[in-house]
Write a structure and sequence with these properties.
The protein is α+β, with helices and mostly antiparallel strands and about 290 residues long. The chain is about 45% helix and about 25% strand. The protein has helices spanning about 25-30, 115-120, 135-150, 155-175, 190-200, 205-215, 215-230, 230-250, 255-260, 265-280, 280-289; strands spanning about 5-10, 15-20, 35-40, 45-50, 55-65, 65-70, 75, 80-85, 90-95, 100-110, 130. Strand 1 (about 5-10) and strand 2 (about 15-20) form a beta hairpin.
């Protein structure tokens, strides 16, 4: 009994080579998993309309041209264009009649995908983008297709790893500082980030930070989160906890000293905050290591 089926089809409108894949129960609950993967060549004009699919779709145009309608916008698609969609939303794509396209696609999902796609969008990720390097996406598609058709006994774990790699590439494409409306570009955030990393032990107040760098605190808050995926306070807390973990493991300093040195205050607050982040107390963490 196989958990995937390969189809070579020649219809009136397209020729396709696809695999319908059924992941294991373990993969569905714990991994990113493929639902369908394949490629097609349009034989004549055709349109695909989908809505309310429990899936995420990545596809790229290998040749030809066409269009995509998604979330009320129409995008023109050309060779090298990449598309990343939440298929719970309606989408329509169709090839150009005079320049029939060739596509490769992956339908996939995973428990974490709604949050990941939301993060992609919040960072400015577009449903359509054209990367400088397309070959890595083609390579990943080929590797995933080969895995989905293989008899590898840890196939689902390998597929999870390849889809994770794809999501890293997609997230790298999601930050678009050139689309920001008033010129606060990515490199202008570096001094702020460096300031936090150098002054984590001191009390840092958002009002004072925005005044120091001459940036509206509301705008700074939004753009920092878009760029680094977390708020300034969350980023600062992450730095402090990391410094505390380093001192707990590699020094003999007392717990109360470490809390103060790392900007995490008195012992009770330090312990509560540390346990909330790490799941164990500072003392338990020290003993563990």
């Amino acid at each position: 009994m196989t958990n995937r089926q390969m189809f070579y089809t020649t219809e009136s409108s397209v020729s396709s080579n696809r695999i319908l894949y059924t992941p294991s129960i373990f993969a569905k609950s714990s991994c990113f998993y493929v639902q369908e993967i394949g490629s097609l060549v349009a034989r004549k004009a055709h349109k695909s309309v989908r809505n309310n699919l429990d899936s995420y779709l990545f596809f790229f145009v290998k040749s030809g041209s066409g269009s995509l309608i998604y979330r009320g916008r129409t995008y023109c698609l050309f060779p090298g264009d990449m598309v990343f969609l939440d298929c719970r939303q309606m989408y329509v794509h169709e090839t150009d009649e005079k320049n029939l396209w060739e596509l490769s696609w992956i339908h996939f999902d995973g428990e974490a995908m709604p949050a990941i796609y939301e993060k992609y969008v919040s960072r400015g990720g577009s449903p359509v983008f054209h990367p400088n390097e397309t070959e890595k996406y083609r390579r990943l598609h080929e590797e995933l297709f080969a895995l989905a058709s293989s008899d590898d006994h840890i196939r689902d774990m390998r597929i999870n790893a390849k889809l994770s790699e794809l999501l890293v590439y997609l997230m790298e494409e999601s930050w678009n500082p050139e689309m920001m409306d008033d010129g606060l570009k990515r490199n202008k955030l570096f001094p702020i980030k460096e300031y936090l990393e150098e002054n984590y032990a001191k009390p840092i107040v958002l009002d004072e930070l925005s005044e120091h760098f001459g940036i509206s605190k509301f705008y700074l808050t939004r753009v920092f989160k878009e760029q680094y995926g977390q708020s300034i306070n969350q980023y600062l807390l992450q730095i402090r906890i990391t410094k505390a973990k380093n001192m707990l493991r590699f020094t003999e300093e007392k717990i109360e000293t470490i809390g103060r040195v790392c900007g995490l205050g008195e012992p009770n607050y330090f312990s509560r905050t540390f346990k909330k982040m790490e799941g164990i107390s500072p003392l338990e963490y020290r003993k563990k290591w």
